[in-house]
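Today's session is about reading a structure prediction critically. Students often jump straight to the picture, but the first step is always the sequence itself: look for stretches that repeat, for charged clusters, for runs of hydrophobic residues. Only then move on to the predicted structure, which in these notes is written as discrete structure tokens rather than atom positions. Here is the chain we will use throughout the hour.
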Amino acid sequence: MSVSLTDSTAQPASFSVGTRKIQLVDITALSGATSGTVTADKLRVLEQVIMPSAMVFTAAKTYSGNVATLAFTVPAETAASKVTQGLTLTAVANLGASGNSITIAFTGGGTAGSEVVTVTGQAISVQIQSGTSTVTQVRTAMQASAACTALVTTTGTSSSTVSTAGALNLTGGVTGGIFDGAICIGY
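Below is the predicted structure for this chain, in token form.
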């Protein structure tokens, strides 16, 4: 069985295998999407579409000419978060997996009630009075920083104290939707 390229590009979008043609198409299914169509413009008749494994089909695919109609679910977007020392930080600016790169550190040298928040890129640093600054005081300082609130929401109220700690990444962020390719088989 020979494979013949039908496109002149270095990475062809379609090719033939015997009497069948195969076309690769880009697909985008945003978080929350539940249906869509795939059009194989290089095929006259589309017989099968092979989609990414993250897409879960909720009904049988239907085919008409070179178009497949699909009903599906895709992964939902989940914000990264971190619970540390009585504070809960949740990513707002970098939802999905990119929120996992946001860090929080508590450094010494501050004064309780006058904590200082510094943000460099996606690194948040709070200068505290270790063992004296309370969760409520640290949260208040973080919420007062526009640069910090552009990255995370911060919750937590307690008279418990916060101690110095090195940078910790937020975790659990998942990028929703699917940005991938599909394999279309037909003739």
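Discussion point for the tutorial: The domain at 3-76+176-186 is CATH 2.60.40 (Immunoglobulin-like).
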